[in-house]
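Question (not urgent): is this output format expected?
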Amino acid sequence: MKNLQKLTLFASLIVVLWSCNDAIDIEQPGRLGAEQAFQSVADLQLGLLGSYATLDATPQIQFNSVFTDELSIGFDSGGQGIGNGEYGFILNPGSAASTAQWTNFYASLNSFNRLIEAAALITPADADEQAQLNEILGQVHGLRAYINLLIVTYFSTDYTDDGALAGILIDFVPTVDQLLPRSTNGEFYSLIEADLNLAQSLLTTQSDPIVVSQDFITFMRLRMAIFRQQYPAADALAQQLIPRYPLANRAQYQGIFTDADNTGIIFEMQRVLNDRYDGQGATGSGFAGGWAGANYAFVNGTIDGSPYFEIGRSLFDLLDPADIRFDVNVNNTSIISPDINAAEDFRSEDILVVGKYPGDPASQPLLNDLKIFRAAELVLYRAEAAAAAGNINGAANSTAAFLKELRDARFGTDQPLPMFANATEAFGAILDERRIEFAFEGYRWVDLKRMGERGGRGILREALDCAINGACSLPATDFRFTLPVPIVETNANPDIQQNPGF
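Got this back:
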């Protein structure tokens, strides 16, 4: 996996096999099918590398940032985020965000299902090849579970309702003429569980941050349990992982976001020079892609790098300069106004540059690995489970204690133990901590969707940040905390049921 340049050699094969159903499912002379493309375990290994290359979290990072209160319009904006409406809470079946998530998820599923079907046609030559095949299948089933949970995350109205509709459940390679209905959360969860069980039985790797491992599988079980509010099971799973993934100290935390340190990283999407994501993505668009830092700036992650989005003031005001997360999120070239309401020219006197994806200034600015599963989630999931159980206060095994544990690590000093009057305050504090910890990592919209009502939180922008369009707030109960099924799907499959409100 480390040498991702191998993917360049395999890219054309990946495109031929699964770039789109229209191309895949039309039988043409000379067409390269799975039985021709995958004739050995070594071929499957290359196919697995290609499958990893389909994974991209930058569209999710972009949508969670622009649609919520993580960002404001930058001083060098050319209309990014405004033209497509996401910054104004405009979301409909034609929106780029909806289309990007749906098409990307199903492109990945197509690659996974083709590998699984091809693997059934191959007989390993010996025990070593059988072991390699098991590892390949374990990883691809884990990846399929990951994508299917993302489909539930973005397209289901209620994660806790097994009867709610999610996406189209596909565990096979469909033909181009198949019109499939949406399946329920319960059906998705069943397939996810089956994939996780199979992956767990096949994988030998306990931990490796750039591939699916046993710890990846455990984390997936944890996240699914959290989404379903199965808190006792979630807390037990978090406790399994915590001994192997300690919280990063201040220096390590800073190194995580320069790709110099992997402390506490359970899974990440690796990005390297000359891979398929080494380039400027669709700036300001829900399709994103490319360098992660290009979601916010054109050239580099400094004030001179043409930032077209900046840190939203309501988020910035939560950041404490004594907290290492301030240094990670706020580039040190930023101009910080001591009083934005008194500023004569708000845009030039308060320029808050997103610093989370600096890239390597010497080789490629804005290009960084994407951190997908981190140790901080384990602690915050335990805080959530404690709040759900009513254990909100106290110095141990409480929401307050877990929040203090994380803050102690980020400040590098002993922090006060918080005190909450009720569960709403506790859930609100968890959301505030998640907002800081996972800023610009693709969490904010998802967190508000699943926990905002319980924590009394919604999207809330600083008045100056929303003066451009009046889109200042949105309650977590709004129907736009579920993505619509995109028009590219409903046009081809008119019987598919759309989500409420669209």
